[in-house]
Amino acid sequence: MSLKLKSPLLAAFGLSAAMFAAFPAMAETVKMSAMLDGSQEVPSNDSSGTGMVEATFDTDTKMLDWTVEYSDLSGPATAAHFHGPAGPGENAPPMVPVSGELASPIKGSATLTDEQAAALTEGKIYFNLHTEAHKDGEIRGQLEKGDM
User: Fold this and answer.
1) How many angstroms separate the CA atoms of 71 and 51, rounded?
2) 73 in the Ramachandran plot: left (φ > 0), alpha (ψ -120 to 50) or beta?
3) What is the pLDDT of residue 4?
4) Rounded to two decimals, what is the model's pTM?
5) Is 22 exposed, middle or buried, given 0-12, 13-18 or 19+ CB atoms closer than 10 A?
């Protein structure tokens, strides 16, 4: 009798496991944003430049898509990067380069590595725009979840 009880229980367990396996993990598209200015540079500067990064991150494909709008820089942007891992007030090397035309608005995308994705979701990536007058960065902002 105990074998008959175990068999239906095992069958039910197997069916439950199969049902859960049939539903893939739910991917999420996370909105990210950052306000850019010279006060967030380390060390800070007195640039009158300002900007905004709006991005989305797909947690399944690890695709980061971004649009950066800025104005009033001291000159043309010479480089742009996502830096990390670093919190506000900390410097870090570039993690995700931005290539192509750097005139506002800058649009782009990149597939992140596991390390980059972890830094992004932990709030440890900032965006930095560089100019000839501010080779280490003229305006910067920490990416945070949500819209600004």
Assistant:
1) 6
2) beta
3) 52
4) 0.81
5) exposed
Token representation of residue 144: 């945070």
Give residue-wise pLDDT tens across range 100-111.
999 999 999 999
* CA-CA-CA-CA torsion sign (130, 135, 136, 138): negative
**pLDDT tens digits along 38-77:** 999 999 999 999 999 999 999 999 999 999 999 999 999 9
What are 107's two structure tokens? 């649009």
CATH superfamily label, 29-145: Superoxide dismutase, copper/zinc binding domain (2.60.40.200)
Contact 128, 45 (CB under 8 A): no
By C-alpha distance, which of 34, 33, 36 is closest to 131? 36
Alpha helical stretches, state H, the chain: 2-22, 114-121
For the chain, give the number of residues. Answer: 148
Handedness of CA 132, 134, 139, 142 (dihedral sign): positive
Confidence at residue 36, expressed as pLDDT on a 0 to 100 scale: 98
